[in-house]
Amino acid sequence: MRKLLIGAAALAISMTSTPTIAQQSSMKAGPLWTAARINVLEGQMQNYMDYLTKTWMANQDFAKSQGWLLEYHVLQSVNPRDGEPNIILITRYNDFPSAEESERRNDIMNKRMNQDAHSAAASSGARNSMRELMGSALYREMLKR
User: Fold this and answer.
1) pLDDT one-digit tens code per residue, 56-109
2) Are 34 and 135 contacting, i.e. CB atoms less than 8 angstroms apart?
3) Can you count the helices (H) and strands (E) in the chain?
4) pLDDT the model gives residue 58
5) Nearest-5° angle of CA 57, CA 99, CA 133?
6) Where does the UniProt annotation place the signal sequence (predicted)?
7) Does residue 115 contact residue 123 with C-beta atoms inside 8 Å?
């Protein structure tokens, strides 16, 4: 009797619920956003702003001209609390490139900057005297259908 009641209850629930595969979301996946969290060290803000203007933004402009990204922004926190970044670098992409395409783009960018993977890593390490990398986040923009 107990099995019959459980079976009847399961049947009743399945008949009254709408299948989720038949429902279409009111939102669809859009572009990707990355937010790099940077803590610029005491006394280094102008040096880091110079780096961003001369190198980072120039590279972002080149990547944008190639169609690799949609837009980018440099945000400065007005009132960072302890443990929060004082700079956030936002980049908006149409979608993920394949691994092969990503490698191709890295090769083009390294050639443009007269560097290889090793010297690029060394340059990033040298900027540790100006800033601390606090991680990054990846977001997917959701668009109305």
Assistant:
1) 999 999 999 999 999 999 999 999 999 999 999 999 999 999 999 999 999 999
2) no
3) 5, 4
4) 97
5) 45
6) 1-22
7) yes
CB atoms closer than 10 angstroms to residue 58: 13
Q: What domains, with CATH codes, occur in the chain? A: 25-144 (3.30.70.100)
**59-81 b/e with 16+ CB inside 10 Å = b?**
ebeebeeeebbeebeeeeeeeee
Q: pTM for the whole thing?
A: 0.79
Instruction: Assess contact for 140 and 30: CB atoms under 8 A.
Output: yes
Write out the two tokens for 123: 């340059």
Q: How many residues are recorded in the chain?
A: 145
